[in-house]
Amino acid sequence: MAEMLFSRQPACSSGPSCTVQAHMLMVPQPTVLHISAMVCLAEHLVRVSRGGIRVTILSFEKLIFPLVQKLKNLSPDVHLHGLVCPLKSGELSVGKSSDRLEQAAELYVKNCMERKKAGHQDVPSFLLSDCLQVWTTKISTYLNIPRYVMANISACSIALALASGEVRGHEGISLCQPCEKTKFEKLPLLMSDETGMKHKKLLQDIELSVKHAEGIVINTFEELEADALHSIRQLIPDSNVLAIGPCETSVQIIKWDSIQNRELDTKCMDFLKNHPKKSVVYINFGKSGMTELNQRHIHELAQGLESSGERFLWILPLPKSDEEDDVLPEGFEVRNKDRGLVVRGWVTQQDILSHPSTGVFLMHCGWNSCLESISRGVPIIAWPSLGHQLHNSRYLAHKAKVAILLPQEDGFFVSRTYIEQAIKIIFTSEEGMQLKEKSMELKATSMIIFDEGGSSYKNLEHLIKVIRA
């Protein structure tokens, strides 16, 4: 199968100096979000190793090429390698995309082996793959190189997967014994409905992947998930567990170039700058989160916002039809036009969370959004709907103390009363003040965490030693 390289040539493409530069191959989950997280990690590795490591990131050229166009300041030691593979509509789902990526990578891996046999020093000597790309064990075996996995989910979710006993029912998995001393016994484990079964399979794949890896890199940081990381290290004592985060999507990547998206970003910024510091409720469930909400949920949320009397910025996805456009209560936007703004479309979330007027983030608690909010000192009102979101929200509310978890009934329905109460807690109570203070503490930590002496910096140094061993 054909392949295409969009990156520059290696910084030391010839000469004896190449022998001291380790070559790390990264295989992310084939989504822009996961590729970007690995780009972030790669840049940190190159910087901290002072040129001692170069990185190749492997994925579909359909995803890689647009990123190359946007990442103008990418380090010359970070290469984005695009594999040409025709993708049909819907083939970027987790299972199908992994199968296609495995097929597309076959030629690249064979070429690496041929160069290795010929004595070339530029072939990968270390593999880091997304924990859902279980097939990459074949690459490490074929090239005889160490393999670590990277998890873009919370350490809490991983600890629960390993400790619950639910996952280990999968045939052939015996990674660890149940951890009787786990500190997460009061957290929800796995959902029992169809969604829960899919979530269970996801966690089974993660455990299987971890079982065959020499270590795991988790997109989190020690100060945020110390308890969860401690439990993971107890559960898999023979594995190297490294918290290296937050590694988040570059704003260069997610900013859309269309006039419409620039106008929406400007509209949001203009709204925020006209309101006091930390006074606005930001609501965004993302495209996937909105699929879990029906009109009843949305109406209840709208009524809760209106009853709170607080300012708000609510992001909704673009409607697919006129019927979908009419999801809010009649007259809601008109009644609240002086203190609220509803935007339909894609906006740059990092800019909104970084704005001084943003006071709290009401969301579903996907892990990347959690990290973006925490690293900007914005407390969270959590309305989770899926298994891993439940894990995240419970941990952030009860352990990290940066979130309020909305009480749910009848599935994940939340009444307007609870929504109003949660907003008032954030803005008018001692509890809300404590949540803000803890959020600002974690923000301060995250700002220096990749500086020399920071916990993620130290874990980077440890990983670099392993890569160059």
UniProtKB/TrEMBL annotation:
Source species, domain of life: Eukaryota
Keywords, sorted A to Z: Transferase
Cross-referenced CDD domains: GT1_Gtf-like (cd03784)
InterPro entries reported for this sequence: UDP_glucos_trans (IPR002213)
A Pfam entry, by short name: UDPGT
An example Gene Ontology molecular-function term: UDP-glycosyltransferase activity
Protein name, entry field: Glycosyltransferase
Biological source species: Marchantia polymorpha subsp. ruderalis
